[in-house]
Amino acid sequence: MQWLQTQLAVGHAPATLLKSLLKTGWAPHIAQAALAVCTQPVRTAPMPEPDLSQHTSEIDVGDRLVQVLLSMQKPRLVLFGNLLSDTECEQLIASARPAMARSRTVATQAHGEEINPDRTSSGMFYTRGQTPVVALLEARIAKLLQWPLENGEGLQVLSYRPGAEYKPHHDYFNPNEPSSAAILQHGGQRVGTLVIYLSDVAAGGCTFFPESQLRVHPRKGHAVFFSYPSPEVHTLTLHGGDPVLQGEKWIATKWLREAPFL
Questions:
Q1: Closest Cα partner for 230 from 166, 172, 160?
Q2: How many Cβ atoms from other residues are within 10 Å of residue 30's Cβ?
Q3: What is the b/e burial string over 109-133, where b = at least 16 CB atoms within 10 angstroms of the residue's CB?
Q4: What distance in Å separates the CA atoms of residue 166 and residue 188, rounded to the nearest whole number?
Q5: Cβ contacts of residue 191 below 8 Å, gap of 6+?
Q6: pLDDT digits (tens, 9 = 90+) for 198-207
């Protein structure tokens, strides 16, 4: 299924893929059913999206001009500069530092969270509007991505020391996993991610998208945004955090939901 979705994403016709499946021994009814699942219509509901209609190099978010440094369609990705000042980055880190603990991931087979060896960072969550800087940043993100503030999860701050990494993963919730039903009751599916760099990193620590071979190098105050209209691999949003080689990496992550997150 992952192979099918990848081939569709790069432009191969379903009829061509059906012939390939049959040639390699797939039963016709199974091949047709697999293609039917992979070619379901993509979400057409509103999505978080910066206004790039005029191909502008800056977006006015009210209290500052955010730079547009790069944009892609597949995956849907935008790199921003000047989202945060150095002082704001340092304030977010200072407030988060006392609450940092080993990062967890959503438990895929049961409700709750679990330690995952693929993720070796430390982290904490702010509640929405918990500090003046958090509230200011959340309002800035809502305006930048034209997405309701209440549709965002609480800001997560993460620290990666030398050797720490987060292996490639998807941010959306897999609808087929037992834990997803309960999660989706509160805000629905995730539809976008904003990774904000709170520090420079001497070496390593890039955000890596293996399907497009794109690496975003951390730079203090910059952020990378990517969206996924459906919880499927053809969105090409598989990503990870490369191991930090020198220094310490601090980031803040904002996940956006399709509905108010309560």
A1: 172
A2: 10
A3: eeeeeeebeebbbbbbebeeeeeeb
A4: 24
A5: 43, 47, 48, 172, 227, 228, 229, 256, 257, 258
A6: 999 999 999 9
pLDDT tens column, 207-255: 999 999 999 999 999 999 999 999 988 899 999 999 999 999 999 999 9
Task: Supply 8's token pair.
Answer: 């569709």
Strand partners, 166: 119, 241
CA 121/CA 129 separation, integer angstroms:
24
Q: Is 169 exposed, middle or buried (0-12, 13-18, 19+ CB in 10 A)?
A: middle
Our CA dihedral for 85, 91, 97, 103, rounded to 10 degrees, sits at -40
Tokens of 59: 């977006």
**Closest listed residue to residue 75, CA positions, set 142, 172, 152, 144:** 172
> Average pLDDT for residues 40-47, to the nearest whole number?
71
